[in-house]
Design goal:
heterodimer, A: 271 residues, alpha/beta, Rossmann fold, 8-stranded mixed β-sheet, B: alpha/beta, Globin-like, Alpha-Beta Plaits, 8-stranded mixed barrel, 5-stranded antiparallel β-sheet, 18% strand, disordered N terminus
């Protein structure tokens, strides 16, 4: 028989991937020409976009260490993307080797990459699922195998919820995740905002729309991002530009003030 | 992390030196972490860099200079994180300034050469490690990509296995053949029908199995499918069995295309005539109903319709409604396809119950489309009542997965009454009406209008024939004079299209409208501009007269992201000066950001920009003052303003327009009276049949010379 070739759209390297573009902005090489092209366009509009990516990644490290300091030893990282530098399991297991991490992504390339990277790590795994189906993630055998949902979990949704349009009701979706977690669990979110930004952000949004990627950026104002945390209690200093969330060094902040505030970051605890 | 292998004594010579190294390492770390993603805390990074600095200093104090050790330092810096060119730049700068200032390297001049060589070696090590890291990442990425594709294919294999299962177990003969008819696979049922073994079928073609008397019509039909003239082959055929008997079978062949859309192979299903009868009822049930909703499918509906039209009441006829749920895609996108499927089931049930009192059939077509056939009687409600009832019914929230979803449907309606009417024509008419309904507001119904349909069809036919005509050279550029109203002198030339069409010539305005429908306008418009620009430039060479060239673009062209680059390309290729070109943009599109951008950029380049189809309304007047526009051309429909009731307001508005400093042109002037009226109102130039026909280049130029 003649075999029909069939390649899923997300494996089509002529379509830019947000995860790989982000990796390029971080200085990584886990990307293809089409991703780099988009990143170059973005950088043309927003010359310091690289530093926004770096500042967000640095936030990840601080948020994970904040959680491990409070006894959290298991993590669920939704929308983990392409494993790049300073991944959750690297940060958590560096200090507490017993930490367990479940990554979740819907992009088959990101999943394949994570599987390769995590092949030798029996305390970290990746689940191929869509964030919009919380039960498929929370009830996934791999999740159940690695995480004990009766104990506190560190739930990370970094640079991911702005890809979920209002029509998909991210507030209701995050509530379903929050409800499944035990008291003492923590939720960390970073989210792009237009608060205090000029028209360059909408140009970037436009660039993504014009690209062949199906992803659309939905930036949200402070109160709508705040609402994603629901009744979890935000820890100090609350929901702020992610560079201003407990910065500890030069690497945590950008020289450009807009890049320090274009991404909101916050960590909240389930009472 | 450990420092590189052959560790020389890392300690600085003095406590002072130690403090200086701390400071240098801190500065180095500060600069690095501000530029690159390094997953270390400030203290960790400083400690790492301090160790590397110690290694560097130790090398620098010893002879011979151990450049290999310095290269390892470069490699180590790369390994700290994603460290690339910015990291190297900061490292080189901070060390080039910092090392000579350390106490152990005083006087600085004595060590300058060694420090320079060391920084060079560090850069080398950095580069090698960075390249290796990039290659490793790229390789992992390729591996991931392969893995993702393989995982996807594994899923595909599964579905292929299911397909195999169907083929093997089917009671119908199934043959997979190449486009040339060569057999690729057969199942056991076909072997039974032919009384041959699979082995005996190797190297045979489908045509070898068919009775020579009927093989011709099979070949012809398969060719028609390959060429896209026909969807599938469905024939009564005769196959030759082992003993020479003829088996009467019905044969269906569908063409599967490969990923590039090229014909791949045929799936041929052969049903034994005798078996067929036995299986008829079962097949009917399976093949004629939609699996999801249980409603008849399009095929069933269509064949039922055929009979219904034949037996229709000659007075009341039948009514065919073609429904499409509005915004169904949005439901699926937001709530998932499962919810969408459940919704379709509900909709099907509601439609059925709504029409329970009528002699009606509700069928599911594809996706979110439904068909309803009503066999009318004297008591059947009229179309408006039925259509309204459908939308009222759907507007009642349907509860799916705990959500109340209210829907509306766009409905195309066609009526059939003549007994000789073709049922496929009726289906097409309803579909056509549906498309018009969808083009309007949601939740509308539209009755099929044969006149509108004929006009639309001939327009479509012309539009789709246009690219071919262009390629055949049937389209040409004509030149239209732009005349100064004060003295009648030709002050410019507008390039327009002429199509020596299939029946009669198609004028510029219609050409543009047709090309706009298909998007052909983008390349065609560039060709028009390029040809005309070349012509005008040629006229202008050697001291000739070259009037400025006007080219009006369409809304589509005006907002084309490539408009500017197309214009630049033409100007470069032809050598026409930007200020000799007038690009006219429909005033209605300046509200589109892309079009406004294009206008602005063209004006900045020095191209003269104009607003076309200018309407003298407040929005138009406002547009005339922005975007660097040099002129406006009053719309054709306003050319008779002088004779109508609008004269008064024109007398007020035209001076206002003049004050903005733009030139005023008028389009579509057909009489001297119109020309005079506009001249008296202060219009500058005009175009239109009054000033002569559109002409080929040579004739136009000749006229120009005479005129002068």
């Amino acid at each position: 028989m003649v075999q029909q070739e069939w390649i899923p759209r997300s494996v089509d390297v002529s379509v830019p991937s947000m995860a790989r573009t982000y990796d390029f902005l971080l200085g990584g090489a886990h990307n293809f020409a089409v991703d780099r092209e988009l990143a170059v366009h973005v950088s043309r509009v927003m010359p310091d976009a690289r530093s926004a990516a770096r500042v967000n990644r640095a936030f990840l490290g601080r948020a994970v260490r904040f959680m491990t300091d409070r006894g959290v030893r298991q993590f669920l990282d939704i929308g983990s993307g392409i494993p790049t530098v300073a991944n959750v399991h690297e940060v958590a297991q560096a200090e507490f080797p017993e930490s367990r991490v479940v990554y979740v992504d819907k992009d088959p390339v990101a999943v394949a990459h994570s599987e390769l990277l995590l092949a030798d790590n029996d305390r970290a795994t990746i689940v191929h699922a869509d964030m919009r189906d919380p039960e498929s993630i929370l009830d996934h055998p791999e999740t159940r195998d690695l995480l004990d949902l009766d104990q506190p979990v560190g739930l990370l949704m970094l640079m991911m919820l702005h890809w979920v349009p209002d029509a998909d009701d991210p507030w209701e979706l995050t509530a379903r995740y929050r409800d499944a977690l035990a008291p003492g669990s923590h939720l960390a979110i970073t989210h792009v905002t237009a608060d205090g930004q000029d028209e360059r952000l909408s140009e970037v949004t436009g660039l993504i729309e014009e690209s062949r990627s199906a992803d659309r950026l939905t930036e949200r104002p402070h109160h709508r991002v705040r609402a994603l945390f629901g009744d979890f209690e935000l820890v100090e200093p609350g929901l702020v530009g992610c560079a201003a969330w407990r910065p500890a060094g030069r690497g945590d902040i950008s020289d450009t003030s807009e890049m320090n505030t274009v991404i909101y970051g916050g960590v909240a605890r389930k009472p | 992390m450990s420092s590189p292998g052959s560790t020389p004594d890392p300690r600085p010579a003095s406590p002072d030196g130690s403090r200086a190294r701390d400071l240098l390492a801190r500065k180095w770390g500060y600069l690095l972490s501000g530029a690159e993603m390094i997953p270390l805390t400030a203290e960790e990074l400083e400690r790492e860099l301090r160790e590397q600095l110690d290694v560097l200093c130790a090398v620098l104090t010893r002879d011979p200079l151990d450049l290999a050790a310095v290269e390892r330092v470069g490699g180590h810096v790369v390994s700290l994180g994603h460290v690339g060119e910015d990291g190297l730049r900061h490292t080189a700068e901070v060390l080039a300034a910092g090392l000579p200032a350390l106490p152990e390297f005083q006087p600085a001049g004595a060590h300058a050469d060694r420090i320079t060589r060391a920084i060079g070696a560090l850069a080398t090590g950095f580069l090698v490690a960075n390249r290796r890291s990039v290659l490793e990442q790229q390789e992992r990425m390729q591996l991931s990509l392969l893995k993702a594709v393989r995982d996807a294919k594994w899923n595909l294999k599964e579905s292929q296995a299911r397909f195999d299962e169907v083929v093997t177990s089917s009671a119908s003969g199934i043959v997979i053949v190449g486009v040339d008819g060569g057999l690729i696979r057969v199942n056991s049922a076909i072997c039974d029908i032919l009384d041959l073994t699979a082995g005996e079928l190797i190297d045979k073609t489908l045509f070898d199995l068919v009775d020579p008397g009927t093989v011709g019509k099979l070949r012809a039909a398969m060719l028609a499918v390959v060429e896209g003239r026909q969807d599938r082959v469905r024939q009564s055929q005769r196959l030759v069995r082992r003993n020479g008997d003829v088996a009467r079978i019905s044969l269906t062949a569908s063409l599967l295309r490969d990923a590039d859309g090229e014909p791949g192979h045929f799936v041929v299903v052969v049903e034994d005539g005798t078996e067929l009868v036995l299986l008829q009822s079962e097949l009917n049930r399976q093949a004629l109903n939609d699996v999801l909703t249980g409603l008849p499918n399009r095929q069933f509906f269509s064949s039922y319709l055929e009979g219904a039209v034949r037996r229709a009441d000659p007075v009341h006829g039948v009514t065919l409604l073609h429904l499409d749920l509005d915004a169904f895609g949005m439901v699926c996108d937001s709530l998932g396809w499962r919810t969408g499927e459940r919704l379709l089931v509900h909709v099907g049930q509601r439609l059925k119950s709504l029409l329970a009192l009528e002699k009606a059939m509700v069928a599911r077509f594809d996706g979110d489309e439904f068909g309803i056939l009503v066999e009318n009687t004297a008591a059947t409600p009229d179309i408006a009542t039925i259509a309204a009832a459908v939308n009222r019914e759907l507007a009642e929230p349907l509860y799916v997965d705990g959500r109340g979803l209210a829907l509306s449907a766009s409905i195309g309606v066609a009526r059939g009454s003549a007994r000789d009417q073709d049922h496929t024509e009726l289906l097409r008419a309803a579909d056509q009406a549906l498309r018009r309904a969808k083009a309007e507001r949601r939740g509308q119904w539209v009755l099929f209008d044969p006149n509108q349909d004929t006009a639309a069809r001939s327009t479509h036919a012309l539009a789709v024939g246009m690219p071919g005509a262009w390629e055949q050279g049937e389209l040409s550029v004509r030149y239209r004079p732009v005349v100064r109203l004060s003295d009648g002198v030709v002050d410019g030339v507008e390039a327009v299209l002429l199509w020596e069409g299939p029946q009669r010539p198609v004028a510029h305005e219609r050409c543009v409208e047709l090309a706009e429908m298909t998007g052909l306008i983008l390349p065609l418009g560039e060709w028009l501009l390029g040809t005309a620009a070349g012509q005008v430039r040629w006229w202008g060479q050697g001291g000739g007269v070259a009037p400025p060239l006007t080219v009006a673009v369409t809304a589509h062209q005006a907002s084309d992201a490539d408009l500017v680059s197309r214009v630049v390309r033409v100007l470069e290729n032809t050598g026409l000066r930007a200020d000799r070109l007038v690009v006219g943009v429909p005033v209605g599109v300046v509200a589109v950001p892309e079009a406004a951008d294009n206008l602005g950029v063209l004006a900045e380049m020095g191209v003269r920009t104009a607003l076309e189809d200018f309407g003298l309304g407040p929005d138009d007047l406002a547009a005339a003052q922005g975007f660097g526009v040099r002129s406006v051309r009053v719309a054709k429909r306003l050319v008779d303003l002088g004779t109508g009731r609008g004269a008064g307001f024109a007398n007020v508005l035209i001076p206002v327009l003049h004050e903005t400093g733009v030139l005023i042109a008028v389009d579509g002037v057909t009489t001297e009276a119109q020309a005079t009226w506009w001249r008296d109102r202060g219009a500058d130039v005009a175009t239109g049949p009054h000033f002569g026909p559109d002409q080929p280049a040579a004739a136009f130029y000749e006229g120009l010379q005479v005129h002068l």
